[in-house]
Automatic annotation (TrEMBL):
It comes from the Eukaryota. GO terms for biological process: interstrand cross-link repair. It is an enzyme of class 3 (hydrolase). The keyword Magnesium applies. This is Fanconi-associated nuclease. InterPro entries: Fan1-like, FAN1-like_euk, tRNA_endonuc-like_dom_sf, VRR_NUC.
Amino acid sequence: MYRRRNKKFNILQGNEEQSLEFSRNGIRLRQTNITELLKISKKTNKSVVVPNTAFTMELDVKSLGNISETDHTETSSQSEDTIIYGENESVNNNSTSLETTSPSSTIVIHEHVIFNDPTDVLSVEICDDSDIPLSNTGSDELSRKKYARSLTSKRKLIFDDTEEPSSVSPKKRMELTNNSTMEMDVSAPVDVNTAENIPTNTKQDDQVPSCSKSQSTKNNTTAGQKGLLTPRKINSTDSTNKSNRISPQKSPTSPKCLKKLNPKEGKQLQIKQLDELIKLFKGVSKNCFKRKLLNEAEYKILKRFISLEDNRKYVVMKLFVWKKMWYNIFSFSKKANLIVNDDKDIIDIFENLKQEEFVDTMYNKVENLLELLNTLGHDKIKEIMIKLKIKPIKSKPENVKLILQVASRQRTLPGSKSFKEVILNAIENKMGFSFKIKFQDIQKYFQSIVYDKIVFPKVSIENYPVFVSRQQFLDYGKALKVKLLLDDTLSKIKETKLGILNIGNQAYLELQQSKLEERDKVAPHLYKFRAVHVYSKILSLCCNHIYTKKDGFPNEAKKWLEYLIQRFPESRYIGFWYQKLIWLHMRHLNEISYEKAAKLLIEVLENKAYKLNILSIYELAKLGTKLKQSKKYKIDQLYHDKIAQLMPRTIKEDEIPQEQIDSTSIRHLEQTGVKKNYITVSSDEITIQTVEQVALNYYADNGYPEGIHCESSLVNGLLLLFFWDIIYNPSINIPAIFIEPIQQGPLDIFTEYFYDNRKDLFKERLNEISCWSVDKLIDFAKNNWKNHCYKVSIFGLIQNAIRSLDIIPKLINVIGRKLLTSIFARLIEDLRMYRSGMPDLLIWNIEKQHCKFVEVKSENDRLAVNQLLWLKYLKDNGADVAVCWVHSRGSKRKIIKSSPVKSKT
């Protein structure tokens, strides 16, 4: 038996008090590799450091306001091995961990909050694992100590089994965090009230205007940079890590991260929201091209909204932002802080909005039964069930389901109300005067413009018609809805192949019924705003996800691919379609035919070569190699010879320098396809690292003290610094590239027209970069960083990729003008294709003025074609490149010619 301590929090929000259970054992860590970790830790008597990326956790405690705690205990017959999750904890060197007995027990994590004293009162706003504003004040202290921070350090898991769980008292648990100081890492300036032992940020040069980051980008892991974040020390022994992780900045688009506003700030935000909405509507009504896209009824609604009184506009605006559901008018007005003299004013407001057709009040309809039941709280659901003589059960969803089942089975007597009508009457008694908005959600617009305070690039706006008719606009909107449905389906953990098939069939039917539209001769890049283009992309994505024989629909994929090739012979996706169709004939159709596959390959290489980019050519070449070398399915000699004639020279992996590192990996027991984590052991701790961090640490010991795990983000950021003016303010006139002030990039970005529209300007800038002195290059890049790093762009925020000015001189010096020019020349030639595939690591030695591009792979990984193409290109242009294979000890090794084996303990 052991005693498990729980907390019961009373959350004070306004005048309402709510109770919240929060287990002191916190959140269970997924059973990925904990058994191995526990064994290793117990054998070596070392603590374990876990970076943010090592685990995925969910937090279902969402609390805002003042939290007071009361203790209660819970007993269980099963003992547990417990890991203390040292995120906000300070640990006494002499203290012991809790509940560590049975080696086969479940590991449990303590999440985020440990109290120093039972009388402590905390105010906690939990946003996510890596961004937790926290304030702490003792019971005898009136002034609250506040600090905000981004939790960026590595997380410690401490193992200890020196004390039996039964002997661990609740008070002992509290004492775990006493008599110690807590080190904190800060990644950005924060507002701090003066308080003892509250950490502050280090001074940074060249401050830029602060702004919220609107997009989440690839995390950068750096080694050896001064001023970067270091792990929090929990052990008595101090140790230094050579690889420090920069935590991702939480995108403020998440509602969890919105600041809790005081009434004055809330009122100002409401006014700004309303101003932005009115500005949006007025912009549509004044623009002749946009106005033509609305029918007469829609335009009248727009004008009526603009003419409403401010309090009525405010109600409509809140309904735009809030969840689309039925609201009681008085509850809504109180929650929205609507300023009125008495209840009669509230009724007048909503009667007026009903007359103007902005809200719907007819909710008591049979078809709304499920929606209305879901709108009500659980207590009211139970009251309705008791009135209807239905026995309530535990959860709200089960009770709702039970009511609907009873309603469907209940027969109606002649001349009396149906049972569904009786339920609706009961719901109406609970809901009172209720209403719902009639329009669509614009939450994302407010989120970016009002909450996130996004700064868009300053550009010259052109009044150009994207759509030539209202029907064209409606067709595009309809296609976008199908695309969003597909994106939602693909984003699910277990995507349903049947759901993808249904969406693909819908897109296929729409394409068959649509007419092929000609591209705009003045602005051909606007073709991406046509429904036909969207449906062709949808069908391509569906093919890519259901073409396999196992759990897929290869015959449907074959039909769609053949249709796409025949319907869009000049498409830039033609290479992808042929590639998938060839592979279907080689592997996934019931009738395997290498002969048909060979004919298709010869057809595309002979007749469509002018539409193929280099990536498609080499992907097709891989299939050609399989066709030529197959012993089971031999093709005719003529096909063999033609394929050999048409194929490019293959790029072999052994042309790229290879290096190997040995490290101990942790297996993911319950998941396949998940990247491995690795263990490195120092004198006093075990560190869990990603494969890239293992490589960074190895190179830090072998001549490259600094480096970044950046993939393509760093190079893309440098591209923006050197070509910002050409992308956003070209000196030549390019029609229809900026038509709205809230664009992240020109409308021709990532199209085949982007480079051609600016070819002369790009060539001139590349020539300047190759001729400028190093000092001029550095000054040019720094000035653009200062002027534009806080603005959104085609690659997100520049400061997400290039965190500070200090790194710019280092990068330019170690990469060099010549190589930098070559990299930029390749990128701008086809930005869509080359923006990905760059090596994982950029490492350098500033003293030797030398850098190296390294692609890191575990033993089961393979180099993708675009990665191999980038490595070959960099090597041909004088860069030092390598593929670093990180092997798990005891695994089957990858045989690499003439490559020494390194050991990373």
